[in-house]
Write a structure and sequence with these properties.
With about 260 residues, the protein is an alpha/beta fold. It contains 7 helices and 9 strands; from the N terminus they run E-H-E-H-E-E-H-E-E-E-H-H-H-E-E-H. It binds iron/sulfur cluster.
């Protein structure tokens, strides 16, 4: 599964970063894409001293989970984990189309900057900039001070931001098509699909071989499967599962692991 990672960064609180993240999540979800988010908070803790989860972690657990009727929260002992985006990314589901990180302004990932003024961009890694948003967009004199070759998008123009993200993601993923010309996408060759994507006539996710929903990993190596092999795996596993008791009516994801030793 291929996931596009983007950071929404800004200089301080209350510039509208969360509003931008909300808009992106809403619009991408409406397109049927699966989104994960990460929020970077400086300092602090989610846990409460003397509560049960705190006692579990203090006793030496590397991680603890809390589950309610509607939510699952896992708390990892961060003394064992570096505070970098990859730490959180590693703990998220692997079948996400996008991960939107609020924060981590020094990271290498593509970024949307949300700012009030030109000076807010100091101390932000400006490499790989997708767009500038926030109240600065309404201030021509502040915008003039920026020497940036990036689109400027109003904070409520989420669809515009989504189009910019999708264009970046498609460009990157199209260069990674498997090259096995299996025709499962409806095109004769991978290059034909690539051309159609570049012309805006197709979506790179039509390559079901690359954007597989059936992921086979053998001893840590991801095995590329042609579309019809994936269909076969899916049909066999679903056929068996449907015969089992206590299987939920609506299934989103099946994780099957076979230990041979
Ligand atoms: S489904 Fe993917 S691998 Fe198969 S031809 Fe299309 S682009 Fe190539």
């Amino acid at each position: 599964m291929f996931t596009y990672i983007v950071c929404v960064v800004g200089p301080k609180r209350n510039v509208g970063k969360t509003t931008v993240v909300e808009g992106l999540v809403k619009n991408l979800t409406e397109k049927g894409l699966r989104i994960g988010t990460v929020k970077h908070i400086h300092g602090g803790t989610f846990d409460t001293p003397k509560k049960d989860t705190w006692k579990h972690i203090t006793a030496g657990a590397s991680a603890t989970g809390v589950i309610t009727d509607s939510e699952l929260l896992t708390i990892w002992n961060s003394s064992e984990l570096p505070i970098i985006p990859e730490t959180a990314l590693d703990k998220l589901p692997k079948n996400l189309d996008y991960v939107i990180i609020e924060g981590f302004r020094h990271s290498k990932y593509p970024k949307i900057i949300v700012a009030d003024a030109a000076e807010d961009l100091e101390n932000i890694n400006l490499e790989n900039l997708i767009a500038v948003s926030g109240r600065i967009v309404e201030k021509p004199e502040e915008l003039k001070k920026l020497d940036l070759d990036a689109p400027v998008v109003k904070i409520n123009e989420s669809e515009k931001l989504v189009n910019l993200l999708e264009s970046r993601a498609q460009t990157i993923f199209v260069n990674q098509l498997p090259g096995i010309d299996c025709k499962s996408c409806g095109y004769d060759t991978c290059e034909d699909l690539a051309k159609a994507v570049r012309a805006g006539e197709a979506d790179v996710r039509q390559c079901i071989t690359m954007f597989t929903k059936v992921d086979l990993t053998i001893d840590g190596k991801n095995i590329v499967m042609k579309g019809f092999v994936q269909d076969l795996f899916r049909a066999v596993v679903m056929g068996v599962i449907k015969e089992l008791k206590e299987v939920p009516e609506k299934i989103r994801e099946i994780d099957l692991q076979i230990q041979l030793e």
